[in-house]
Amino acid sequence: MNKPLGVLAGIVVVAGALNTAGAWYTGTKLEGVLQTSIQQTNQELAKQLQGSTTHGTIELVTLDRHLYSSTAHYRLKIQDEASGPDAPPLELLFVDNIEHGPLPWSRIKTFKWMPVMAVSNYALEKTPFTEKWFAAAKDQAPLKGQVTLGYNRSVDGQMELLALEAKLDENSSISFSGLTMDAQADADGQNIKAKGYMDHLKINAASLDKPPVVVELNGLTLASDLNKSAYGFYLGQNVLELTEGQLTFGVAQSVAKIKNFEYAGSASANGSLLSGRLTYNVGDITLDGKPVGSAQMVMTASSLDIPAMQALLQIYQTKFQPQADGTLPQTPLTPAEQVLMQAQVEKLLAGNPQLALEKLTVKTANGESQFNVAVSLAKPASFELPPVEVTKQMLTTLDAKLLLSKPMIADLSAVQAQLVGQTDPQAVAKMASMNSEMAGVMAVQTGLAKVDGNNILASLNYAAGQVDLNGQKMSLEEFIAAMTTRFGGVAAQ
């Protein structure tokens, strides 16, 4: 054997010995790592499902250790209280073939030679509950994935839901292209990035006494970039994009379609104060092939005291959230809980929170309407003051503007007529015109708006106890008296 080949052989032998030692070490540490991971997962599940009627847990059923690999079996239990106290939990079983580090074969053959602790290859197992799901996926595991665990406890994972075609019953069916999801997380899941894609989903539901309903989704993308806050929940960005969605419904089997739907949500914290932004866009809406329009909405919030919101949420979940049967809890707030609630509301207001509907735009072929409103709040000196004085101190500023297009109202009235089966073009046009003009007349009669050409305009501004309604200035007391005069009599009739 020549010298280069001898050196190479020596390197291979040493590398193999190191890999064997590393694999043995990984195997001895594996069960503790799995149990810790499962415990953290169950804690996170409990946090995320808190306040809902659904509870979930995962457990390690068995672990068979070998030198280079191990096989684990897990059980996921999901219990929904809405199904009743005697309803059995939903159980899903998973098998996990775990390759020990530092150099698992699945990484070597794909030229990924960075040492890792383990590579997990998991898949849903076939049970009486999941056998129809397996059949729809041509007897393959319909849910599977791979997770790579680094020595720094970072995680790099891929999950796949396989394509399937299945009849749900005699009149209903589902067609699914499959979904892929990639995710990365550092130790203990403090930072998470994920991205997923689905090409197509179609659900056809029908019954003997109702018209069929067909839901279709095409081109769905999901993405998240999140960081766990000191308060136990995640901050960051979430994005959802849908290329096209379609709903077929009703006796006439009308087809409503949206294109280029986008949702973006972001949240951040400055100390104990939370800020967030939500954006919704619908690029195009049609009904039975006829254009309806487009829409956009942007909402923001800032300076929200996180501990106060969490305390108020806890009170809501225990005292006000509907129970599994839909009824409200019957136990009233105790005096101590009332004091706690008021203290948390005061703490929330002390942060001077700001809430805004920055933009609400609806655009049709012949018109565009816009609405926005922003509110700033503050803590009053006392809630024992007269209601008007509490309002003055608590409501720092309010600014709202409305532009309502009469042609847009006419366009949407025509869509409404189409939905109820009106087919006479002249009757539809007449009704649409009448509705748009009626909106202008009602706005002027109430005194809340004015008409300027084809637009209905309204503005409301409040600051320092003074109200400006469409250019008419008055005190808050005068404004309340005016609104009571205008609408109090109507409510009494």
TrEMBL record:
Matching InterPro entries: DUF945 (IPR010352)
Pfam families membership: DUF945
Record-given protein name: YdgA family protein
Lineage: Bacteria, Pseudomonadati, Pseudomonadota, Gammaproteobacteria, Pseudomonadales
